[in-house]
């Protein structure tokens, strides 16, 4: 029996659900509505259009075969009716109708549905700052705003740009303006780190260094109070600490579910406003489905409700909804929140919990940091990758993984390999023995994803006593107040510059000489050993323990991690 499916929202989830359903029930009718003139585009590509890496905004709307996904495309190629510049104003669940308004003409109408899909996405958080109505301030959430930003940057009229928020979009926009257009760029973040909630503080410091090393000013722990302007255009951003000149402001202070229409119709939502759905993506009304940025789904690490406003999530959920509109039984059990962001020299990627979020959730957790080449050390093309594993100590269960690398595709391969294990509540032992394809141009014989688990096992079993990269940097910065003996265990030529710079504090004792020089290590002092990446220092720690020096800690990630942190050692 044919149906009429109405889909509200036509960016990511909506078109995917509509097209999947039409493939399964070609004789049924689908009406797709959206209040914007342009639909079905890759919103996550907006920063790369602004930067110029994506040449034309139409590329964000195009299929892989370079056909623009406009209303005519859906009618001709998908047999889906599309109403653009059309806003849904009310849902009557009892009558199974949607009232609509054409925002261009003011004409109203009513659509009857058998099944309804709510795909309204999210809306940018717009705090009530004074001056929000000034020109030149935008959240950059649609193609029209993207074109405005690109045109402004390309015109040469923008010398100073301020980004409010150091999340994914905020940092991608900062890179776009600073790297591609040479615009003086400042990022303001209320929290005390970039990518809060997604990177540990140690790794966030690495991301911060990557940004600052390329000239981006990042102001942490600072809040915007107001915008000021002249002739109706923004010229200044006022924070709780200073006033910053600005020709352009991008608001990237997060998003919230765009669900007012659903709440007014009596659809169950959580305290955040996200629609509550079951594993079939159904709301409390079995004839109404929702997904993407609108909904809350289980966090598969914590088991609690999660919110994952990601384009990839919306597309996968759209396919599930399309199947179930055709009386299927597809399920979407939840997510672990995998993500990736490209910065300047580095890319950052992760899934699951950081050490800070794990502790906040009540886990007795530890994190372990490793630096290792992403492929065989003897292969000419390689990069040192940072990985951090988060593990629950009592159960050895892996709770999360994050990383940084110059080669983002190599990094995402490692994170993606661990994602299924997070969903399965796997232990560190399973990561240690994870089968990873090997050939020198692609990986090491003992891959870094295995290595970080191996090191974690040693920590859990008391064989490896580590300080994190940020802890080492703090200990070194406070060395005059700390009773610590620092030993560089690398071969002497590597240590000489540091011994010359810090003659009274930096001591060079290579691994090969420890047995013969054990008397040089003062009794009663704590010892911290450091090498290039952490491998030699671990071996030095074991040897020192064997020789009777018990209070020894190894610097995780070694000098490579310190360089990435920008610690200045």
Automatic annotation (TrEMBL):
Cofactors that this protein relies on: FAD
PROSITE patterns tied to this protein: RHODANESE_3 (PS50206)
Gene3D superfamilies in UniProt: FAD/NAD(P)-binding domain, Rhodanese-like domain
SUPFAM superfamilies referenced in this protein's UniProt entry, alphabetically: FAD/NAD(P)-binding domain, FAD/NAD-linked reductases, dimerisation (C-terminal) domain, Rhodanese/Cell cycle control phosphatase
Keywords, ordered alphabetically: FAD, Flavoprotein, Oxidoreductase, Redox-active center
UniProt domain Rhodanese: residue ranges: 480-567
Molecular function per GO: oxidoreductase activity
Domain of life per record: Bacteria
Family: Belongs to the class-III pyridine nucleotide-disulfide oxidoreductase family.
Identification of the protein by name: Pyridine nucleotide-disulfide oxidoreductase
């Amino acid at each position: 029996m044919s149906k009429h499916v109405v889909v509200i929202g036509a960016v990511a989830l909506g078109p995917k659900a509509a097209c999947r359903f039409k493939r399964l029930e070609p004789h049924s009718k689908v009406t797709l509505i959206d209040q914007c003139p342009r639909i079905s585009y890759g919103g996550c590509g907006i920063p790369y259009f602004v930067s110029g890496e994506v040449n034309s905004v139409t590329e964000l709307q195009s299929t892989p075969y370079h056909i623009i996904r406009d209303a005519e495309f859906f009618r001709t190629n998908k047999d889906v009716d599309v109403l653009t510049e059309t806003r849904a104003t009310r849902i009557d669940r009892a009558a199974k109708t949607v009232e609509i308004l054409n925002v261009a003409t003011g004409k109203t109408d009513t659509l009857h549905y058998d099944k309804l899909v709510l795909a309204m996405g999210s809306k940018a958080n717009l705090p009530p700052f004074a001056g929000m109505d000034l020109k030149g301030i935008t959240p950059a959430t649609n193609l029209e705003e993207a074109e405005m930003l690109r045109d402004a940057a390309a015109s040469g009229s923008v010398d100073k740009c301020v980004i409010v928020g150091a999340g994914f979009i905020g940092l991608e926009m900062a890179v776009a303006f600073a790297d591609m257009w040479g615009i003086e760029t400042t990022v303001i973040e209320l929290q005390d780190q970039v990518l809060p909630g997604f990177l540990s503080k140690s790794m966030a410091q690495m991301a911060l260094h990557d940004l600052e090393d390329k000239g981006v000013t990042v102001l942490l722990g600072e809040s915007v109070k107001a915008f000021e302007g002249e002739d109706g255009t923004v010229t200044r951003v006022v924070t709780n600490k200073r006033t910053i000149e600005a020709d352009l402001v991008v608001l990237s202070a997060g998003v919230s579910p765009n669900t007012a229409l659903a709440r007014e119709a009596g659809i169950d939502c959580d305290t955040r406003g996200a629609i509550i759905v079951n594993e079939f993506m159904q709301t409390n009304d079995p004839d109404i489905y929702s997904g993407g940025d609108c909904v809350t789904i289980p966090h598969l690490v914590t088991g609690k409700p999660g919110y994952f406003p990601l384009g990839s999530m919306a597309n996968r959920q759209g396919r599930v909804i399309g199947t179930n509109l055709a009386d299927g039984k597809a399920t979407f059990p939840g997510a672990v929140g995998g993500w990736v962001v490209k910065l300047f020299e580095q890319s950052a990627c992760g899934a699951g919990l950081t050490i800070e979020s794990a502790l906040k959730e009540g886990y007795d957790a530890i994190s372990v940091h490793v630096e290792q080449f992403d492929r065989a050390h003897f292969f000419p093309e390689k990069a040192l990758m940072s990985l951090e594993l988060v593990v629950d100590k009592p159960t050895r269960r892996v709770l999360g993984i994050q990383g940084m690398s110059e080669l983002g595709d190599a990094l995402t391969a490692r994170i993606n390999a661990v994602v299924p294990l997070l969903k399965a509540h796997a232990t560190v032992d399973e990561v240690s023995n994870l089968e990873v394809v090997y050939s020198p141009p692609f990986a090491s014989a003992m891959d870094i994803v295995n290595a970080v688990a191996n090191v974690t096992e040693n920590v859990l079993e008391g064989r490896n006593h580590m300080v994190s990269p940020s802890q080492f940097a703090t200990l070194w910065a406070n060395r005059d107040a700390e009773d610590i003996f620092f030993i560089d265990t690398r071969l002497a030529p590597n240590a000489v510059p540091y011994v010359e710079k810090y003659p009274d504090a930096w001591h060079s004792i290579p691994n090969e000489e420890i047995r013969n020089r054990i008397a040089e290590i003062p009794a009663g002092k704590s010892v911290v050993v450091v090498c290039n990446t952490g491998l030699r220092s671990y071996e030095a720690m074991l040897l020192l323990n064997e020789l009777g020096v018990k209070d020894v800690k190894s610097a995780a990630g070694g000098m490579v991690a310190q360089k990435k942190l920008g610690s200045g050692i």
